[in-house]
């Protein structure tokens, strides 16, 4: 009888010790991993420039030409159509984020990375891009061409 | 002198017993034995990468403002800097090439079969690590091509459902490819990947040592029928000396390529310039690049590129687990795997060629 008590008590005590040891180890592992995992997440970068930016001066662009401008942290494309109208769009291709360019020979917007084509309204017309480019508004303010995000309706 | 050192070691460590497994190791000899050199050449090129990589570290500076200039400095001012960097770039490409050849030779000689399943899996992981080395190292000179390759590559990682976006932010060190990305890639390239790769290479070699070198099945059955035809050679010194000759040839090819066709640097990355016309990835990513170019924007209701990326991911996983799909002695699964191997090789080769020919 006594021996069964001992043999019962042995493993139970061992289990308690194992539980404490294992639990302690697990807790310290988690306490190491937690700060490390958060350390891996980069802190957010302030989007400088906000919703409005001076993209160019009036007269910088000839008809049927374009330039890349900084819109916050991302590139934007300011283009002047052959008719002289100004348009501004996101320059980040909706396929895999390359920076697009205006092709004066095609009168279209082209992405060199995977041969995506957009029309001058930013609509994806051929190649792999799945969505149109985001359109911005262009205002003339004095000498400046000001580009701003379209207000949500 | 050498004998006295050996005796000294032998007295203390029982050197003879420690090296006994290596001296007992044999390599089968048949008309396909040449394919056994490829893994060793890959290992040799990895050694070259470690050596030249350490040399480059003496001058390289990992920041967006200095990286391009420091590589330019290495190539124009540092004595033999152009050679060291050129060897590092060429050896990287040759290493991927020999690793891919090694993989296909193991596949077609069916060396992956039981009991060597885990040797195959560790080799596949090493191949993916080598591509990770290529991808992270490509950005370090901070030139235009590298900038857009990284943008596209990390964007591809970002397309993976659920984990994609956090993974992309983790890789880039933010929402965009910036100097923070360069710093991270530098860390991956010189610390994280070499550490993991070294451990896996040791495991890969230990497994090869444990199981011995595979004899192709048709040779094996021939030898079983006629035991007097079976031939093998000692690893030490017979095979090792032959392998060293192969390394010498590899070194010759590498030196010639690096000297006659030094690796270019291109123009410094400008995050606010459009992607240049004719932009292409490294040749070993070309077949995926070309596929992504051809996939339509929408497949059913999913974005085309997501479908493409998922298919490549699934194919990669299945490929890594290939030995487990072959059941013992089942001719059908064997033929299926052979067919898949030939198809993969043909697909990758033709898509790569198409990628270079197509505008």
How would you sum up this structure, described in words?
Chain A has 153 residues and is of the alpha+beta class. Chain A has one helix and ten strands. Chain A has a six-stranded antiparallel β-sheet with strand order 1-10-9-4-3-2, with no helix packed on it. A four-stranded antiparallel β-sheet of chain A has the order 5-6-7-8, with no helix packed on it. The longest helix of chain A has 39 residues. The termini of chain A are far apart. Chain B is mostly helical. Chain B contains 16 helices and four strands. In chain B, the strands form two sheets. Chain B has a two-stranded antiparallel sheet with strand order 1-2. In chain B, strand 3 and strand 4 form a beta hairpin. In chain B, helix 4 packs antiparallel against helix 6 and helix 6 packs antiparallel against helix 7. Chains A and B meet through strand 2 of A and helix 8, helix 9 and helix 13 of B.
Question: Features of this protein?
Answer:
heterodimer, A: 153 residues, alpha+beta, four-stranded antiparallel beta sheet, elongated, disordered N terminus, B: 359 residues, mainly alpha, two-stranded antiparallel sheet, two-stranded antiparallel ribbon, globular
